[in-house]
Amino acid sequence: MAKICPKGFRPEDLENPTPIFHLLYTQTVMDGRWKLMILDFLSGGAQRFNQIQKHLDNLSQGSLTKQLKEMDADGLIIKTIHPEVPPHVDYRLTEKGRDLLPILEMMVAYGEKHTKGGSYKSHIKT
After folding, report:
1. Among 23, 37, 38, 126, whose CB has the most other CB atoms within 10 angstroms?
2. Where in this chain does the entry annotate a coiled-coil region (predicted)?
């Protein structure tokens, strides 16, 4: 899992977690430029690497591999290698990954609410 800060979680946070600890943990597992879009795409079912890459406008193989490895390490997805020639690999959400989908839906609703009237334009770099 990516760390919240260079030193990670403090031992006292792990022993006696607070609400902010849980918030930061959730932020940490979702952190990554492409993870939200990967989660959304995999919500439709298992997908092969190339399908994910094409969905993300041909994101580089290295960047996608890094995000998928982190998501696998965090238990958000399962990588399945099918013994075929050539190898067939697919990715799907785990229960832990599916538990994030309502958060994505709330983020969409927030974005829809707060981008009415062009208020989003100040956040877009041209």
Report:
1. 38
2. none
- As a whole number of angstroms, the distance between CA 76 and CA 25 comes to 13
Domain 32-106 has CATH 3.40.50.2300: no
Query: Structure pTM?
Result: 0.81
Residue 7 has pLDDT above 60, yes or no: no
Q: Which of 96, 41, 83 is nearest to 49 (CA)?
A: 41
User: For residue 27, what are the contacts with CB-CB under 8 A and spacing of at least 6?
Assistant: 4
**Among 81, 88, 82, 103, which residue's Cα sits nearest to residue 35?**
103
Min mean pLDDT across 7-11, 47-51, 89-93 is at 7-11
Sketch the domain layout of the chain as residue ranges: 32-106
For the segment 90-117, the average pLDDT, to the nearest whole number, is 92
Candidates 77, 53, 78; CA nearest to 65 is 53
E strands in the chain: 47-48, 77-82, 88-93
